[in-house]
């Protein structure tokens, strides 16, 4: 007996093609819209200043490091000229440890850490450029939280464990979390938990955290005041 396998009804193919197209369109829109808004904001600031160009921190830098701002301008659209991101999905870079920033840039360039927007940008930069970027953003004043944590606010149970590394200016490879974007931190902790972002220390530590635990931690650290800058010894 020969079975008759009829091809799928044409209407299903149309629906599948339409769904795939819609998914791609929405995915691209989710990336392009925040970037477009950031670029428009910078363009408006330039127009208001009467310069006709996107503003940078070039004039604020000491002589001899102007090249740093020239390289960093490639990152200004998303992370801001002074490292203060206006999008909760993108991290603040201001006042972050230089060694940590440099290592993350190197990881993006090598492919150890992946991001659809960062990867193609960083791959075009030299190692000297990466160092200039890390130098520039680590030298900016850290971001103060918009909604500071109340003095008597209770910390999440896991916060004390996190503070051992992330509240320590003497550990050059562990990032400060104070005042960081909550949505960004939440997405990164989830990535560590899922194993899509690799770190031998972080992965086992967050494995047992629930979604509500992660959200509470991210919200807590986003409202903490900045830690004192790392010493020059820690930056080397």
From TrEMBL:
Residues 1-49 form the signal peptide. InterPro entries: Cyt_c-like_dom, Cyt_c-like_dom_sf, Cytochrome_c_Oxidase_Subunit. Keywords: Electron transport, Heme, Iron, Metal-binding, Signal, Transport. Residues 59-141, 149-225 form the Cytochrome c domain. Pfam families: Cytochrom_C (PF00034). One of its GO terms (molecular function) is metal ion binding. Gene3D superfamilies: Cytochrome c-like domain (1.10.760.10). The keyword Aminoacyl-tRNA synthetase does not apply. This is Cytochrome c4. It comes from Comamonas testosteroni (Pseudomonas testosteroni).
């Amino acid at each position: 007996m020969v079975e008759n396998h009829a091809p799928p009804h044409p209407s299903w193919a149309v629906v599948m093609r339409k769904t795939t197209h819609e998914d791609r369109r929405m995915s691209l829109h989710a990336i392009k819209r925040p970037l477009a808004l950031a670029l428009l904001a910078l363009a408006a600031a330039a127009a208001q200043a009467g310069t006709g160009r996107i503003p940078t921190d070039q004039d604020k830098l000491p002589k001899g490091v102007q090249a740093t701002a020239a390289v960093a301008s490639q990152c200004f659209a998303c992370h801001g000229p002074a490292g203060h991101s206006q999008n909760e999905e993108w991290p603040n870079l201001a006042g972050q440890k230089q060694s940590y920033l440099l290592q993350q840039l190197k990881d993006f360039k090598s492919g150890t850490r992946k991001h659809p927007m960062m990867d193609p940008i960083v791959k075009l930069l030299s190692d000297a450029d990466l160092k200039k970027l890390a130098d520039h953003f680590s030298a900016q004043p850290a971001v103060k939280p918009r909604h500071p944590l109340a003095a008597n606010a209770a910390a999440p149970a896991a916060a004390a464990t996190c503070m051992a590394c992330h509240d320590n200016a003497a550990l050059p490879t562990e990032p400060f979390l104070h005042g960081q974007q909550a949505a960004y931190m939440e997405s990164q902790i989830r990535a560590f938990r899922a194993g899509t972002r690799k770190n031998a220390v972080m992965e086992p530590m967050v494995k047992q955290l629930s979604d509500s635990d992660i959200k509470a931690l991210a919200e807590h650290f986003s409202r903490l005041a900045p830690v004192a800058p790392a010493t020059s010894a820690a930056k080397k």
